[in-house]
Write a structure and sequence with these properties.
mainly alpha
């Protein structure tokens, strides 16, 4: 999802400096114009936070069901970005 979101920034002539900034860019640029729902960005943010936990915490575990749900959400997120691109 992160790299798909980066594609919008790159297309718009920007370079990301952090995962958090990508979320704020989507929110500011695309949600405000009505091109993307805030729910999509909220979902992206929740996975951004989860990614941070998995990368920097030793006690994070995801279930098989959570992993399947993440893949399903990623597919819908990418479809949303493809629609914008």
């Amino acid at each position: 999802m992160f790299h798909a979101a980066r594609a919008l920034l790159i297309r718009d002539g920007y370079r990301e400096k952090s995962h958090y900034c990508v979320s704020r860019y989507l929110e500011y640029t695309y949600c405000r114009k009505g091109l993307m729902s805030t729910g999509v960005v909220t979902m992206f943010d929740s996975y951004r936070e989860m990614r941070h936990q998995t990368a920097y915490s030793t006690d994070f575990e995801a279930t098989k069901e959570e992993a399947k749900e993440a893949v399903k959400d990623a597919v819908s997120f990418i479809k949303e970005l493809e629609r914008i691109l």
